[in-house]
Design goal:
Blueprint: H1 19-29, E1 33-34, H2 46-56, H3 70-84, E2 94-98, H4 99-111, E3 117-122, H5 127-134, E4 138-143, H6 153-157, E5 164-170, H7 182-194, E6 198-202, E7 227-232, H8 233-236, E8 244-248, H9 251-264, H10 270-285, H11 288-310, E9 315-316, E10 323-327, H12 336-345, E11 348-349, E12 351-352, E13 366-370, H13 375-386, H14 390-395
Parallel strand pairs: 1-11, 3-4, 3-5, 5-6, 6-7
Antiparallel strand pairs: 2-8, 7-8, 9-10, 10-13, 12-13
Pyridoxal-5'-phosphate is lined by residues 38, 99-101, 125, 170, 174, 202, 204, 232, 234, 240, 245.
């Protein structure tokens, strides 16, 4: 019997199985401490967990309105107004999605036509390029040079043309930890205005900042009407598995986003939408949880930087997010993937940051370490990393 050729969408062929899946498998195989995937290994705060428990047993178990429970769209609008000073209409400008991942997909599927171009930074969160491809668009990548990873007009200008429909801008940035400064935001905003395109502003790490408080590019002149703010409950409230995210955009763009969203998931999980509303309302009333979050992450960041520099890694100290890039080549490895495979065998899982770069980009220097981890996890990682000096680790490559 001949076997049917398994069908595969050609647009997705370049993406295949990601290094994330490989690293997760190796992490389990070697019982490694997981500093790879970016999820907290601690529980959400009690007031957020309690809100979910109440919602699950309190009449929120059926579909909600497709674009979100009224209470949730209102809470998101209130939070956006308080945190970034952005006033949005909860009924016409906010869409609740199954995590920010779905928001990214819904926006791109909602706005792109075949051949439309979307500018993305290289490196960037891996779902951007895949979603652009799924939507029939074309990603135009702009390489940022580490360790500074700075945006300049010269770098960005060449990627824009009459075909450009949007740029995806992410600050604080995964994986580099950059918070793009005023001048860099002005470059992005200026090009978006000049080429009359949208900015998809991924702000999921808005509350995990070290350099200065987060500000949204949507606040710059002429940007409100062309910015889609993308957010997530998961990072701020340590509940990445709840998959609650959102897109805030002017009504016309929101109609396109909602059109795609209704056929992707129809609605985000209702009990977690209700819990999200309670969590956001609570920090709008009293911001002390957010201050504690920042203080805790400042401690975790210092601890992880201490561990990594202590064993000889050159690191990029993050301005925001919960990731640190460490230079594997400077430590003696040929590239990041080799380094990650050796380290996972030694019991520490990381993510080779080339997963966030265009495969054509030759930069293979960076390993990404996540520090959204408990002290015990970091201490165990330190013990394992300290077992051998870094240059000895590098020798294991051969
Ligand atoms: C930059 C960025 N955007 C979006 C997401 C996805 O967020 P969510 O878990 O809400 O889907 C992540 C998750 O790691 C991220 O790092």
């Amino acid at each position: 019997m001949t076997q049917a050729t398994p069908p595969f969408n050609a647009r997705l062929a370049p993406f295949g199985e990601s290094i994330f899946s490989t690293m997760s498998r190796l992490a389990v195989e070697h019982n490694a401490v997981n500093l790879g995937q970016g999820f907290p290994d601690f529980e959400p705060p009690a007031f957020v967990q309690d809100a979910a428990t109440r919602a699950v047993s309190g009449g929120f178990s059926q579909y909600s309105r497709a674009f979100g429970l009224p209470k949730t769209t209102h809470a998101i609008a209130r939070y956006a107004e308080q945190s970034i000073g952005f006033a949005a209409d909860p009924d016409t400008e906010v869409t609740v999605t199954a995590g920010c991942t779905e928001a990214i997909a819904a926006v791109l599927l909602g706005i792109l036509n075949a051949g439309d171009e979307v500018v993305i930074l290289d490196p960037s969160y891996d779902s951007y390029a895949a979603c652009i491809a799924m939507a029939g668009g074309v990603a135009r990548r702009v390489r940022l040079e580490g360790p500074a990873f700075r945006i300049t007009h010269e770098l960005l200008r060449g990627a824009f043309s009459s075909k450009t429909r949007a740029i995806i801008f992410n600050s604080p940035h995964n994986p580099t930890g950059r918070m793009f400064d005023e001048g860099e935001c002005a470059v992005v905003a200026g090009l978006a205005r000049e080429f009359d395109c949208l900015v998809l502003s991924d702000e999921v790490y808005d509350e995990i900042t070290f350099a200065r408080p987060h500000t949204s590019i949507a606040r710059l002149a002429g940007m409100r009407e062309r910015t889609v703010i993308l957010g997530s409950l998961g990072k701020t409230f340590s509940c990445t598995g709840w998959k609650i995210g959102w897109a805030i955009a002017p009504a016309g763009i929101t109609r396109a986003i909602r059109c795609a969203h209704q056929f992707l998931t129809f609605c985000a999980p209702t009990p977690f939408q209700k819990a999200a509303a309670d969590a956001l309302d609570s920090v709008c009333t009293d911001r002390s949880y957010l201050h504690e979050l920042r203080r805790d992450y400042t401690t975790r960041r210092a601890r992880m930087l201490g561990i990594l520099t202590g064993i000889g890694f050159e690191c990029v100290p993050p301005e925001g997010s919960y990731f640190i890039l460490a230079n594997a080549q400077a430590a003696g490895w040929p590239d990041d993937v080799t380094a990650a495979k050796v380290l996972v065998k030694a019991g520490v899982a990381t993510i080779p940051a080339s997963a966030f770069f265009d495969p054509a980009n030759p930069d293979r220097r960076w390993l990404r370490f996540a520090f959204c981890k408990q002290e015990a996890t970091m201490a165990l990682a330190q013990q394992r990393l300290n077992a051998l000096p870094l240059h000895e680790f590098a020798k294991l490559t051969n």
